[in-house]
């Protein structure tokens, strides 16, 4: 057996022998998202932490690239390329709410939950995990890639801009600035990581 296989076997055996009924049901579903809620919240916090880097990324732009942003100040502008990042915030907030709601239900009523009800909660948890981890990660990749494009220089950026069309750094019209999204993402990352540590100790 490989070390990875041994790890998964040990985790499953630990859940079956020492875990709650909900944890035992989760590992038996053989799902892509069979990790503990605390673990998935920690992963979500990493997604948000990565998103918060878009602010610092803009600080390294050259003057010519910075001039492409509305007002010539990337940090306080609201460019079109920021919109996937806004969607990341919404997805992670919704996914976190789903994860926490399931955890709260388990912590307060697990002894009274039927197997059918626990399966329903697992379905909610898996949906939250899919949108928060898969959807969030894809949109994060798009966002960071667009912002890193700024380091390629004005000439490269212009190759991706159709004449007469809106460019990636034109204003989005939403009023949401790079600084605001970056700050909210960082605060959200800290909150989710804190929640993951609390749940890790409560849901053992």
Automatic annotation (TrEMBL):
The chain crosses the membrane at residues 41-61, 81-107, 128-154, 174-195. Keywords: Membrane, Transmembrane, Transmembrane helix. The keyword Transmembrane applies. This is Uncharacterized protein. It comes from Haladaptatus paucihalophilus DX253.
